[in-house]
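#random but structural
TW: two for the price of one
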Amino acid sequence: MQRRAYAPAAALASAAVLSAVLTGCGGGAGSGGGGEDPKPGQAGSSAGAAVPGKYHSLPEPCGYVGRDTLRRMLPGVGDGDEEEAKRLLQGQAAITYDTDRRVGCRWKLETANGTRHLSVDFERVVSYQPGVSDENRAKQLYQRQATAAHIPNATPAPTASASPGGSPGGSPSASARTAAPGPGPQLGDATVAPMTPSAAPSADPKLAPRVLDDLGDDAFVDDKLATTGSGVHRDVKVVFRASNVLVTVAYDQWTTDALHIPSSQDLQGKAHGLARELDAGHFGN
């Protein structure tokens, strides 16, 4: 009888020891520990997480550009053939592996005299660097593009690392800014200005590569000219940053007439106008 009286007490003591061991291994879940160890760079880690950006989605690019705008930028599209015009205006979506992070669309108009290309690209920047927000990472990437394009007075982003010789300076010479030959000749129209094949791009400072102050948080326009054996082409690019999103509008015109160069004023004006539409439509809030 005496042995039976001690058996329950021994069992209770054993259970109490086991409970204490389990409580210690649980890491104090009852005290708000969360039950998971934070990974490096995640919220709760000592390094700190990257602050999420303002924008969490991107627009559908091919349907986002207005048809009236496309008709202005691709003059003569369809030439009365509405079915052909509809096909060309639909554009072709860029191939990307994550449409939540990057999307784009391309349009191409070919004529007997040459071709025009137009593209729009949206990139939502996500930082994987502890302590660097999505927006600051986007500033770094924007500044890298502005520096590579030699845009005068493009102020470096506070978080961007200065590289030797990378500070913005004066506009380079025309020969230094000559673009590599493209895929082929493209369209010329009544807006082009007569120039010789050896002539430099417009010296008008209002049309030189420069910072733009009416787009997003940061913006610039670049303008390059190239003369090849098959003709001449001008490439205009407008890049702007809206918080953690980078937007690029690329617009070029080729002509087989080497005595006429596509107009900077025409191409820049249309590319700049499209960029303002994109900025106001998706990032204006």
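TW: number two ↓
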Amino acid sequence: MARGHRPSKGHPGPPRFYGRHAVWAALSNPQRRAVKLWATREAAARLELPRALPVTFADAADLGRLVPQDAPHQGLVLEVEPLEDVFLDELLGAEGDAPLLVLDQVTDPHNVGAILRSAAAFGARGIVTQDRHSPPESGSLARSASGTLETVPWARVVNLARALDEMAEAGFWRIGLAGEAQRTLAETLGSARIALVLGAEGEGMRQNTAAHCDELARLPISDRVESLNVSNAAAVALYAVATRN
């Protein structure tokens, strides 16, 4: 299948990243095409800029008009093109036993950004989302990811249930996190390659998604809280996989 650019859904034009970490990471990624930079002279002086990149110098107030209200741009706003598609078979075919993260209708860009950071921290092979129910690349997502949007492979699929079937065929043990599960995550890990499946905060996994998991498991949290934020749950689950015996 030919690789190509995804449409930037929900945006009238190319996404705009802001803040030092997101802009630096995008400029450092050879797979990312930067279109134009707006910057204060002070902030631009701290970056090594590509010679061909158009740069417009502006004051902080003018930059604030290019991003969502009160967004902490830190003197840098970079217009980019979305990254080329990553296909599921690329993630499944990668060597090693690094876990895969599957997100079922997790649409909040701050949560997905935080999950990307945890995926990078614990060496996940990538994340998988359903294209229609996941956030597009955006400034808020890139800032929450703190540079890891550029480094963690992200496969967007049309049909999540079919993708989970492909994971099983590739030898992944699919564990869905669910608070009502009888067994804890540690009890279900085993030694196989793991695909961790997390649902949206509040609603959890859809029934059809849970039906395509090999097991459901819970995190052994205190009864003083009902549940963890999905990004926190992802971090704990990834740590459990990284430290399993």
